[in-house]
Amino acid sequence: VQLVESGGGLVQPGGSLRLSCAASGFTFSSYDLSWYRQAPGKERELVARITSAGGSAHYADSVKGRFTISRDNAKNTVYLQMNSLRPEETAVYYCEAVRSKVGYWGRGSQVAVSS
User: Fold this and answer.
1) Is residue 35 within a helix (H) or strand (E), and if so which, with residue range?
2) What are the angstrom distances between the C-alpha of 6 and each of 41, 52, 53, 110?
């Protein structure tokens, strides 16, 4: 089982990034997928989640209207489009796949929002 995040980097405040998480080794389409983030000295927090069928997405209040989670089951990939980024959103972003309380995590992708 493998989840590999990519697309992080340095962006200016107000800028955009698109994170990708490529999965392998399990039945991707059967899993709910989430993006979490963890800033230095803070707990990991849920950013967005999308159901296995892709019909329902949930967002943290702080990112609603700016972030969009999506999935491509044919490519075994989940995405996080992040717009209007803020400095306080500097963190390591992780993807998670979960089904029936069995979960897998990626190693994370660093996002830095700074001028």
Assistant:
1) strand 32-38
2) 23, 21, 23, 9
